[in-house]
Design goal:
The chain is of the alpha+beta class and about 350 residues long. It folds into 3 domains: about 55 residues; about 100 residues, no CATH class; about 150 residues. The protein is built from 10 helices and 20 strands. A 6-stranded mixed β-sheet has the order 16-15-17-20-19-18, sandwiched between helices. Helix 7 crosses helix 8. The longest helix has 13 residues. The protein is elongated, with a radius of gyration of 28 Å. The two termini are about 45 Å apart. The relative contact order is 0.10. Its EC number is 2.10.1.1. It catalyses: adenylyl-molybdopterin + molybdate = Mo-molybdopterin + AMP + H(+). One of its GO terms (cellular component) is cytosol. InterPro entries: MoaB/Mog-like_dom_sf, MoaB/Mog_dom, MoeA-like. This is Molybdopterin molybdenumtransferase.
Length: about 350
């Protein structure tokens, strides 16, 4: 920062607000802190009595906060991300362009913030977002930041920090197991709940088939749904470790890749995820039928966004995987799954 004559100030950055007072008419800010002085500003500054002003000198080594914000915008803007129309005081906002799941490169985000003098804040990784949602904001902290620091930021971030994976409209087949439902002893309550959750994502349940507690029948029903064009299979009726619950073993015997049988999430520990080629297969625990939010609500959006989850993805839910069962549910704006 230095004090210079106003007539020599073109191209420099104001270090403070400059107020304009016209008695009986106006009192307000004529020039904002951080403003880059232009040729046409000099006359007005002189009329305001500013023969000398305090400025930052950009030179060859400094970048103004607004120009630095543009760099941060480029580093953050990935798939289905829209930048704000304007930059305000060196801050740039990021918005979702589609409904989907926000993906944040958390390691690169940490590296960027560790450079210092940079503030880049996001919503949590893997949170469902709606089109138009604010998902991140970024700015540099000083009015002028070292050019080398921004160049280092660009060298660290080779791919965008933020992406939104939009949802796919799956054709879903559902197998509901249990002799008590199959023989009509009780009414199935599972199907409507799962169907309603899928409708939130515009997915179609092509059929819900009932099965006895028989591995062979469960597998036959699953194959029927695949032959009907199902792109996802969901097994309901409750997963358990009881010897008479043959659903988990039937799913495993269908073949394909078993990702996880069990999850560090409450409610939802008895959850199964598998893949038959590109077909996601989920076995749902009984809690989905009565709990407001469960492991199903955490995994479903990611699966519908086309992400192929791994065992690690499921086990990472342990930190934040406890639902507090609030009387009024605020999910996803809460700690569950974060």
């Amino acid at each position: 920062m230095k004090k210079i004559e106003t007539v020599n100030a073109v191209g420099h950055v104001l270090q403070h607000d400059i107020t304009e007072i016209i008695p009986g008419e106006v009192k307000g800010r004529a020039f904002k802190k951080g403003h880059i002085i232009k040729e046409e500003d000099v006359e007005k500054l002189l009329r305001l009595g500013k023969d000398h002003i305090y400025v930052f000198e950009l030179g060859d080594k400094g970048i103004h906060e607004n120009d630095a914000a543009l760099v941060l915008g480029k580093l953050g803007k990935g798939k289905n991300i829209r930048l704000a129309d304007e930059i305000k005081e060196g801050k740039i906002n990021f918005y979702a362009q589609e409904d989907g799941v926000l993906k944040v490169d958390t390691e690169k985000l940490l590296e960027l913030n560790m450079l210092g003098e940079i503030s880049f804040a996001t919503l949590p990784d893997n949170i469902p977002v709606k089109k138009g949602d604010l998902v991140a904001g970024a700015r540099v902290i000083p009015l002028v930041i070292d050019k080398e620091k921004m160049e280092k930021a660009e060298s660290i971030i080779q791919t965008p920090i933020l992406n939104v994976n939009s949802y796919r409209k799956y054709k879903v087949g559902m197998v509901t197991t249990g002799n008590e439902v199959f023989f009509g002893r009780i009414e199935d309550k599972f199907g409507k709940i799962v169907t309603d959750k899928l409708k939130e994502f515009d997915c179609e349940v092509i059929a819900q088939l009932l099965s006895q507690d028989s591995k062979d029948m469960i597998k036959r029903k699953a194959q029927e749904l695949l032959d009907m064009g199902a792109e996802m299979l969901i097994f309901t009726g409750g997963m358990s470790v009881d010897p008479d619950d043959v659903t988990p073993s039937a799913i495993i015997e269908l073949g394909g890749e078993l990702v996880s049988y069990g999850s560090p999430v409450l409610p939802g520990s008895m959850f199964l995820l598998s893949y038959l080629g590109d077909v996601p297969v989920m076995g749902l625990p009984g809690c989905v039928m009565f709990a407001k939010r469960t492991i199903f609500d955490l995994v479903l959006p990611r699966v519908l966004s086309g992400e192929r989850l791994t065992t690690r993805d499921i086990m990472m839910y342990g930190n934040g995987g406890l639902c507090q069962s609030c009387e009024v549910c605020h999910y996803p704006n809460c700690t569950f799954g974060k």
